[in-house]
Amino acid sequence: MSRSGLRLPDLESYIVYLGGYSNQAERLLTQPNELVRKTHVELLESHLKSKENAKDAIFYSYTRHINGFAAILDEEVALAISSMGPSVCSMILLTRRGKLIGTRSFFKGFESYFGNLSSDLRTPRDTYGHGTHTLSIAGGSPVPGANVLGFGNGTAKGGSPRARVAAYKVFWPYKDYGSFGFDADILAAFDAAIYDGVDVLSVSLSSYSTNYFDCGIPIGAFHAILNGISVVASAGNSGPDLGTVKNVAPWLLTVGASTIDRDFPAYVIFGKHKLKGKACRMHPAANASYEDANVCLMGSLDATKVRGKIVVCVRGWNHATDKSAAVKLVGGKGMVLVNNFINGNNIVAKLHVLPATHISDSDALKLFSYLNSTKSPMGTISYPITMLGTKPAPSMAPFSSQGPNTITPEILKPDIIAPGVNIIAAYTMATSPTHNEFDKRRLPFNILSGTSMSCPHIAGIVSLLKALHPNGALTQSNQQS
After folding, report:
1. Is residue 353 domain-shared with residue 429, that is, in the same domain?
2. Are 423 and 355 in the same domain?
3. What is the C-alpha separation between 16 and 475, in angstroms, rounded?
4. pTM assigned to the model
5. pLDDT tens digits, residue range 165-192?
6. Is the pLDDT confidence value at 11 over 90?
7. Is-contact 115 174, C-beta < 8 A?
8. Domain containing residue 451
9. Which of 324, 354, 384 is the last residue before a domain boundary?
10. Model pLDDT, residue 282
11. What residues does the Inhibitor I9 domain cover (predicted)?
12. Residue partners of 143: CB distance under 8 A and separation at least 6
């Protein structure tokens, strides 16, 4: 995230227009493209006093019908070039007016292991939603009327709403196994961000390490810190077990997740009938095990017994929205997602493809007791509402990874917590909120939970502090918290 733009804050993009060519065919014979590029470098070299700096500054050379180049320059050099006389027709300042001022993608490490990405994926465009969501939390402009299917309506804005932002994409999908990021790509992204002159890096990813220099994040962050860039990183989502916190390097500002005083409750009502369906036990398909059906794996449910009913699915193995998709595809009317003792009270909102709710392990025991004691169980899932002022808040999110720091226990981690449960923020229109192919919904906002969401909250605040104190010692932000 940058206060003023890519590269150094005192530099701007300029077009140096040198005219055109009256005879293109003759020009190609006397001045091939490489020779024209060389003249552009030589012109700029005469002002920068360095050929390498001139080459680095030029990001476009116009060599065909238009003669000129585009380069990153400071105002003094730009004025000097514009005063060169008739050889320079004009100088054009490119004012960065957009919110998103740069995107880069890094995939060579991924491709070296999994093979080449398809051409439609080999792009910095966010096709999953995670990057859009986190970036808008850090620096999104105010958007009135933001909501998710009518829930949580209000004005959404990032922690540093006037900041300009850049995106560095390092995670890529592999078949149906999820997304993967490689240290080679992560380091390349850090290297590019340092060169681009960003002010704050919001790193919503984590990996396990046994020392501070055996993976890409702490190494890249170390060099970012040396260049005056604050680095904020997620603590991970492996809680509530102890010693699960990630990104524990002392130069990182490591962020855990907390709840906020807003909730979206939907209640399960036993014995009454509002939804056209019935509560039911697990009914495995002929070729599926009870264990698969218990967690509602795709293809594991018996359609003849599930159709028209509310299905109880146990958390684990597959994504929560994949469970509700499995229920819907065999004709189920609703789903109650229940925690086991491991998940405890860790419940979050999800955009399911049918009426659904998520209950804690203690409430799950009550539900199972009812199901096992009733021959014809009946139930209702209430319509969810937006509830404000919930208490206690904030409280630690159960999924948020906890300390101690397993590398250096004396260095406490996480450093801080921030909102990371049921966060509404911008979302990509390239996919549905469930990522299921049959889900045709496309939403500008989505509700997500995780330390990936809490991290950019702090990154936005750090950006504001650096804007207020541009000469302050805020690089190692964890020492100021």
Report:
1. no
2. no
3. 36
4. 0.74
5. 999 999 998 887 778 899 999 999 999 9
6. no
7. no
8. 100-262+396-479
9. 384
10. 45
11. 13-83
12. 155, 156, 157, 426
